[in-house]
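## retry 2 of 3
previous attempt timed out at serialization; input unchanged, resubmitting
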Amino acid sequence: MPNLLLEAQEQLQGLVAGAARSAMQKGALPEAELPAFTVEIPADPSHGDFAANAAMVWARALKLPPRKIAEAVAAQLELAGSCFDRWEIAGPGFLNFFLAPGWYAGVVKEALDRGADYGRSDYGRGEKVMVEFVSANPTGPMHMGNARGGSIGDVLADTMKLAGFDVTKEFYINDAGNQIAKFGRSLAARYRQIYLGEEAVPFPEDGYHGEDITERARQYAGQYGDSLMQKPEEEMADALVAYALPLNIEKLRTDLEKYRIVYDVWFHESELHETGQVQAAIQKLADKGLTYEKDGALWYRATQFGAEKDEVLVRQGGSPTYFAADIAYHYNKFAIRGFARCINVWGADHHGHVARLKGAMDAIGLDGSKLDIVLMQLVRLMKDGEPYKMSKRSGKAITLSDLIEEVPVDAARFFFNLREPNSTLDFDLDLAVEQSSQNPVYYVQYAHARICSILKNLAAEGISPRACTAGELCRLTQPEELALIRRIAAYPREIIAAAKNYDPARMTRYAMDLAADFHKYYNSCRVKCEDEPLMQARLALCLAARQVLKNDLALLKITAPESM
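## retry succeeded, writing output
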C-alpha cells in the first residue's frame, strides 16, 4: 500500500546519505561516522517540499561549517530517476528539495485508483488491539463526558483499523458491586413511594436522584402493579434491578447507535464474578506474596508497583472491591483474550487510577506498559457566549440524548473531536447549528458539496471527467494546485500519526485543512477552461479531493452531502 509522501521522504534520506559518501570518497569531505539527520516538511512551501538538516547535524563530526558541508553534499546529488527535480541551499546550510511534477501527478492518480481505500496502510501489522471507551454506568443515562469519550474512542478505533491494527471496540458494563446495590435501593425507595407517598419512605442519602430512577419504578408498577410491596426490601431491590438494568443497557446501546457508535463486544462485569475470574486474580496476587490482611480486609501491596498507597481488594464482609474486578477485567483482556495492547478512554478524574492499574498488571505477571490510558478533559456547553445548562429529564446531568436533540449528530461528533483529548473543550451550541463557513463541520461538508456541484454543472454542459495521462496531470503546477495535492498526499501519514499518538483530533483538523486548500484552489484556478487537457487534469484533482474528503468524513462517521 504505497505512501507516496513517506516514500519520497525515505528516498531523500538515501539521496543525501549517498551524496555524503560520494563526497568523502572524492575527498570533498573528510572520512567520518555521520550521525542520523532528519528530513522534515517545511511550514512554508517556498522553502521546499522537504528540508534536510544533515549539514548542521554533521558539522561537529566533520569539523566543518554547515554551509560548506551542504555545498559538498549538493555537488554530489544525483536527482535523475528520483521524485525530486531540484534543490537549494538555504540559511546556514539547510538542504531544501522540491518534488517533480511527476510526483504530484502520481498522488492524484493514487487517490483516484485506490478510492475508498486511499489512506489505508499496514503500519500496525495486524497487532491485536482493544479500545474500551464510554463504559458508562448502566444505572443512569450517558452524560456529556460520555459523549466526548464516545466520539474520541470511536474515531481512534477506526483510525487504528485504517492504519493496519486488528481493533476491537468494547463497552464494559459495570453491572456488579456497590453501584448496582445502590441502584436497587434507589429503585426500591421510588417504587415504595408510589404506593406509600414520598414522606412515608425516606430516600437513601447516597441514592441515585435522577428522574430516570423514578421513571423505571413507575414503569415496573405500571406493568406489575404492587406485586413487590409485600416482599423483603432486598428481594424487592433485586427484582427491580433485574427489570430495570436490561432496559438501561438497551437504552445505552440505542443512544450510542444514534450517535453512530456500534461496539464489537459488550462485556459484563458480572461475568467476572460469576466465573470466578475476580477471585482467581486476587489469588494470583496472593500467591506472589502481594496481599496482606488488615482491619478485616484483604489489601494489595500497590506501593511496590508505583502507586501512592496500598489498595483494598476484599472489604470487610468478603465483597471484592471495584479495583479487584478491574484487575481481573484487564487480566482477561491480556491473558485470556490475547490482546497485545489495550487502550482505555477515561475522564481526567480517573487520573489517579492510571498508575495503580498499570502497576497491578505488572504485579499479576503482565506488562503494564501495554495498557495505555487516554485521559480526556471536561466539556463545557456554551450558548450566547455563556455556560449553558439544558438538561430536561435527568436531574443535574446533561445527557447525550439531550444533546443530539439540540444539535445534529454530524456536528456533535465533529466538535467533540476538534481538540486533543487532554484539552478542555467548549462546545458552542450556536456554532454547531450555524450554516456558515464559521461552523467547521459545515465548512468541510460544503467543500464536498461544492465539488459535486462542479461536476453536476459540467455534466449539464456535456462535459464529463475522463482518465488523464501522467503528462496531463503534470500540468497541475499552480501554487494552489500543488498545495491541494500535498494535502491529499498527507492523508495516509495523518492516519498513522493519529493512530500512533492516540490523537483522533488530527483527522478533524485534517478535514478542515483539506477543505481550506480546496476552497483556495477553487477560487484561484478555473476548472472549466478552453484548454481541454488542463480542464481534465483539474477535474481529476477535484475528484481526488472529493474522494479524500469523503474518506475522512466516513472515518469520522459524518455525512458527505452532495448538495447544501
